Amino acid sequence: MSAIVATLRPYQAVFKARFTLLLQYRAAAFAGFVTQCWWGGIKLMVLAAFFRSVRTTPMTFQQAVDYVWLGQAFLTLLPWSVDPEIARMVRSGDVAYERLRPLDAHAFWYARAIARRTATPLLRAIPMVLTAGLLFHVFGMSEWALSPPAGVQAAALFFLSMVLVILLSSAIATLMDIATVAALSERGVNALVGPLVIVFSGSLVPLPLFPDWLQPALRLQPLAGLLDTPFRIYGGHFAGLDALAALGRQAMWTIVLVLLGRLFMRRVMARLQAQGG
Amino acid sequence: MNGLRLYGRYVSVSWRSQMQYPASFIATSIGAFATTITDFIAIWALFARFRQIEGWRFDEVALLYGVISVSFALADGLTRGFDVFGERFVKTGDFDRLLVRPRSTALQLLGYEFRATRIGRLAQGMLAWGVGVHLSSVDWTWTAWGTLLFAVLGGVALFSGILVLQATLAFWTVESLEIANTLTYGGVEAGQYPLDIYARWFRNFLTFVVPLACISYFPAASVLGRVERTGVTGWLLPITPAFGFVFLGVALWVWGFGVRRYTSTGS
Questions:
Q1: Is the dihedral of CA B20, B23, B24, B28 positive or negative?
Q2: A276 in a structural domain
Q3: What's the total number of domains in chain B?
Q4: Mutant choice from A45, A59, A189, A200 vs B, greatest count of B C-beta within 10 A
Q5: Is residue B266, in this structure, part of any structural domain at all?
Q6: How far, in Å, CA of B46 to CA of B44, rounded?
Q7: B31 lies in which domain range?
């Protein structure tokens, strides 16, 4: 038992250090919060007009409202960009030090990525959820407010799914970090992955609103597990066996991408050429 | 050397320096294209599902989106100096150097950098514009084109004005506040749909406070034959982009006030 604790300690330490560091940026988080509210508001006003224009829709307007607010709240969970510090290490050549650590390189970077996806997102999500869930009712904007989860079961599964979101998102982010080492620059990776994540996670437009012929493909692709899966569970769009299957897809993609990351990490580190001097 | 020629010199220097790294220029431009085209994908997806938004069709919204995207891409490429003003000039005290030169500060900041990579955003805006024109049944007369080009000019002036105001704020806050993003990027987001779909207070805000309506919705409605949706007299619509220039004028006046109030952060 103590052997396991000892093995985990360095990963736990890097997680803790990153977490406290990221909590420092409170002003940035506040500016981000105001921007997120504004953005969510515009999105919802547009969606409301679309919903007014037709009779039948694949989701209710309330479900769309919840989807948009949760999307704004958990925006920073998405694997937007390469860890800027790793990008700097690649540029300066410091990335070679990663080979010297008596640690598993992939696990180390994966722990960093998870920390990056817990500290800041928590800061952003809590005020957003409180504002959209409570303040909106107080100010008489109930039709635009975030409603509670579809039930106790939905709430529990939503929570489970959000944990998987963090693990999946971090697995993708770590893959991006590794790709940066191979490409020597983070720019291409960010430019390529960013738009894909925005479109296929459901952050741009709730995935159920895409055309019907695209739905089977959208359901199976890994990026749906970043936002779409937990949000559909929250609103009761996925319930019972559907919800369990969705969680299964999330877990499966997480495992596949972590394994892929380990494989690539070994390859890239074996052929590593340090830049700079 | 007069101001315009000097500005031309600034742009050419900036262009040549960016062309020293052609691969980086191409990659960044493609990245900007890919990132911004997602907005157009959203419009496409929603129209594939809903067919129309309160009577407006896909081609009409594509045109609105194209016009506002092109305007913002141009303004964003030209006003880099104002965008980074807080960090780059106030915090460092470098603004002092601009003040001792015998040229206006606005001209020097305009010439600070011409961002060539904004061609990515420009290209996707023109693509959306082209799709809108191709699918529409409007008679594309010279007047129609002229109206929209004037709208783009007004749009460049309006977005530049917002960035000038953002920079002016840095005289007091030192840091550049990204609050202006809610009006620039947020303006593109809101202005890509016909404004009559929004609640009245929001429409009024986008007409009378930040006149975004004047640089896409009004002129485009006139070209598309949708005058009745705007609630404005028809002959007024094509000339509303002039308010973009008025906005820029006010912004530059406020800027001048800020410059007079400026105290250096020292070195």
A1: positive
A2: no
A3: 1
A4: A45
A5: no
A6: 6
A7: 3-261
Contact (CB<8Å) B49/A211? yes
Confidence of residue A28 (pLDDT cuts 50, 70, 90): low
Q: Is residue A192 part of a domain?
A: yes
The distance of A50 to chain B (nearest Cα, Å) reads 5
Contact: B53, A49; criterion CB under 8 Å: yes
User: Taking 90 as the threshold, does the pLDDT of residue B154 lie above it?
Assistant: yes
The full DSSP string for A110-168 is HHHHHHHTTHHHHHHHHHHHHIIIIIHHHTT-GGGSPPPPSSHHHHHHHHHHHHHHHHH
**Please, what is the average pLDDT of chain A?**
88
The answer as to whether A228 is a domain residue is: yes
**Cα of B47 to nearest chain A Cα, Å:** 9
CB–CB of A199 and B34 under 8 A? no
CB pair distance less than 8 Å for A205 and B42 = yes
| Whole-prediction pTM | 0.88
Count of structural domains within chain A: 1
Residue B82 pLDDT exceeds 60: yes
Nearest to A187 among B28, B42, B190 (CB): B28
Sign of CA dihedral B153, B156, B158, B160: negative
How confident is the model over A48-106, as pLDDT tens digits?
Answer: 999 999 888 899 999 999 999 999 999 889 998 888 888 888 888 888 888 888 888 89
What's the whole-number mean pLDDT along residues A169-173?
96
ipTM of the complex: 0.90
Contacts of A43 in chain B (CB under 8 A): 189
